[in-house]
Specification:
The protein contains 27 helices and seven strands. The longest helix is centred in the last third of the chain and has 39 residues. The strands form two sheets. It has a five-stranded mixed sheet, with helices on one face. Strands 6-7 form a two-stranded antiparallel ribbon. By secondary structure, it is mainly alpha-helical. α8 packs across α11 and α22 packs antiparallel against α23. About 35% of the residues are buried. The N and C termini lie far apart (about 95 Å). Belongs to the NPH3 family. Its main location: membrane. It is a peripheral membrane protein. It comes from Stylosanthes scabra.
């Protein structure tokens, strides 16, 4: 863009301390005070270009018409702008640039420098230059930045609104249609901002090309620009990303990883804590409400920052609801928000996570219940949940996330049993495919709280469903001395019941294969078919042998738990297990005694002996 240059004359202005003097050979007859600067000028050049100056000179001139003095402290742009205007009035060369055109335009309007006081006056020149500024992105950004210095004059002349409309239109357009955004106009505030800007500039042209430039605007102008961009149809994802980028420039906390060990938040960079709090609350209100537009990672980091800065309750509640609406997309590390309360009871803010869970459940629980009833998902032998509906899938993901969170906070010695239980039961039981995660968290809690009474340990263990433990978790639980004896017995009972059910199922399959072989033999099928079926039967037998070995290992683990003869008798009567002495004596008994070896469990025949 070319600069406006007037006809050059010899330099007549020079500064002497706090005064500007025009050395034309004639004595000064007008003194204009702007701020702390005094300008010693002449009447005729001023009144020939400015209606306001003409009026002031006529009113304040002395009777002899020799000289006058007046103040222009309210002129837009201050002494710097008036210096350029004075040179313009004297016909000297001035440069109009995107950085000074707004202040000159406002000052020219203030001084009434219209065409009534000379052709090609400053109002028309600056207005024409502004029209060129609006056509390019870089110059529009520069001009909008300088509007902050001359408000509300720029508002009255609609310079701000025109800049914003121009920028909003270009942000929603193809960036290849105009110049690449300017960079490096201002020195970065800190190393963090340099890194953020490098991330944007090092990437090719994309949806985020305009983030850096608009991040240099003040909050009021930035907010107005974002609203204008939204009204032009910008994608919510791009708007949310720009808002987060803006926050990262002014909030150092947004660039730190969420961790309890990170207590460096006491050092605030260049912005006061009150200003950061106000900025955070304003930006949160601008975030799009659409689910998933703002990542859960950024929302949780915003929530953590809001707690550190002690933002308003409405701001924190807003963020908690946003996180709750997409909790299934969150990561465990981001949920570990340190407790920032005045009376810190726990290491992590468990109450906050509980509220987030409540928001999630209020959205997904009705839908997931309907799905679970309609689809009737099956709990298979290994605890696999069969359902493909999205609400139930989201519920399962949150349940797994919660189990991981419980395991992290369980080691906190200050975490009360009631809070741990309330958090564990916040999701319904059917949302957990397996209860291994709950068992792991319970085990950690028992280890970190050895002073729990027997009744409290029993109450804690009711959180897990022993029927939904995997084989590995059941084996570990059977050897866990921290668990109550009743829970160990329950684990072993369900594990044996599972094995017996599996064995019965394999026998049923084996019998069907045998019957199929007989029928095929009667029909005269080829030998190859029979061979394949025999191979299948062999595989069934091998699987049966493996299951029997697993059952035997569980028996051995059970024997390790029994430390007295009386205790072993109780288990043997309930589960049908026998000691080696009983087994050896049974070999010497007659055939009638052999039948009694088929002991019962809960009134049902012992299938293992068969």
């Amino acid at each position: 863009m070319s600069f406006v240059k007037l006809e050059s004359k010899s330099e007549a202005f020079h500064r002497e301390g706090q005064t500007w003097v025009c050395s034309t050979g004639l004595p000064s007859d007008v003194t204009v005070e702007v701020g702390e600067i005094s300008f010693f000028l002449h009447k005729f050049p001023l009144l020939s270009r400015s209606g306001l100056l003409k009026k002031l000179i006529e009113e304040l001139s002395t009777d002899d018409g020799y000289g006058c003095t007046f103040q222009l402290h309210d002129i837009p742009g201050g002494a710097k702008a008036f210096e350029l205007i004075a040179k313009f009035c004297y016909g000297l060369k001035i440069d109009i640039t995107p950085l000074n055109v707004v202040s000159l335009r406002c000052a020219a309007e203030y001084l009434e420098m219209t065409e009534n006081y000379g052709e090609a006056n400053l109002v028309s020149l600056t207005e024409a230059f502004l029209n060129e500024v609006y056509s390019t992105w870089p110059d529009s950004i520069k001009a909008l930045e300088t509007c902050e210095e001359v408000l509300p004059f720029a508002e009255d002349l609609h310079v701000v609104s025109r800049c914003i409309d121009s920028l909003a239109l270009k942000a929603c357009s193809d960036p290849s249609l105009f110049k690449w955004p300017v960079g490096g106009r201002k020195s970065q505030d800190n190393a963090t901002m340099s890194r953020i800007s490098f991330e944007i500039k090092s990437q090719p042209l994309g949806d985020n090309w305009w983030y850096y430039d608009v991040s240099l605007l003040s909050l009021p102008l930035f907010k107005r620009l974002i609203l204008a961009i939204v009204s032009k149809g910008m994608k919510p994802e791009s708007v949310a990303s720009c808002l987060i980028y803006y926050l990262r420039r002014f909030l150092p906390l947004m660039n730190r990883q969420s961790s309890f060990k990170d207590k460096s938040h006491a050092t605030i960079a260049t912005t006061s804590e009150a200003d950061q709090r106000a900025l955070l609350e304003e930006i949160v209100e601008l975030l799009p409400n659409k689910r998933g537009v703002t990542s859960s990672k950024h929302l949780l980091r915003l929530l953590r920052t809001a707690m550190i800065l002690r933002a308003s309750p409405s701001c924190k509640e807003n963020l908690e609801k946003r996180v709750g609406a997409q909790l299934d997309q969150a990561a465990l590390v981001d949920l570990l928000i340190p407790n920032m309360g005045y009376s810190v009871e726990t290491l992590y803010d468990v109450d906050c996570i509980h509220r987030i869970l409540d928001h999630f459940m209020s959205i997904y629980l009705p839908a997931s219940v309907a799905v679970s009833v309609a689809a009737s998902p099956l709990i298979l032998e290994e605890g696999t949940l069969i359902s493909a509906d999205d609400p139930l899938t989201s519920m399962t993901m949150v349940a797994n996330l919660l189990d991981g969170y419980l395991a992290e906070v369980a080691s906190d010695a200050h975490l009360s049993l009631s809070k741990f239980q309330a958090l564990a039961v916040a999701v319904p039981d059917y949302s957990r495919q397996l209860d291994d995660g709950v068992y792991h968290a319970v085990d950690i809690y028992l280890k970190a709280h050895p002073w729990l009474t027997d009744s409290e340990r029993e109450q804690l263990c009711r959180l897990m469903n022993c029927q939904k433990l995997s084989i590995e978790a059941s084996t570990h639980a059977a050897q866990n001395e921290r668990l109550p004896l009743r829970v160990i017995v329950q684990v072993l009972f369900f594990e044996q019941l599972r094995l017996r059910t599996s064995i019965s199922g394999w026998f049923f399959v084996s019998d069907n294969i045998a019957n199929s072989q007989e029928q095929n033999g009667n029909l005269g099928l080829h030998r190859s078919d029979g061979t394949n079926q025999l191979d299948s039967a062999d595989n069934v037998r091998e699987r049966l042998v493996d299951l029997e070995k697993e059952c035997s290992e569980i028996r051995k683990e059970l024997q390790k738990l029994t430390k007295t003869k009386r205790g072993w008798n109780i288990f043997s009567r309930r589960f049908g297990f026998r000691r080696k002495s009983d087994s050896s004596s049974s070999k010497e008994s007659n055939s009638s005694n052999a039948k009694t070896q088929s002991s019962t469990v809960n009134g049902k025949p012992n299938e293992e002996s068969s």
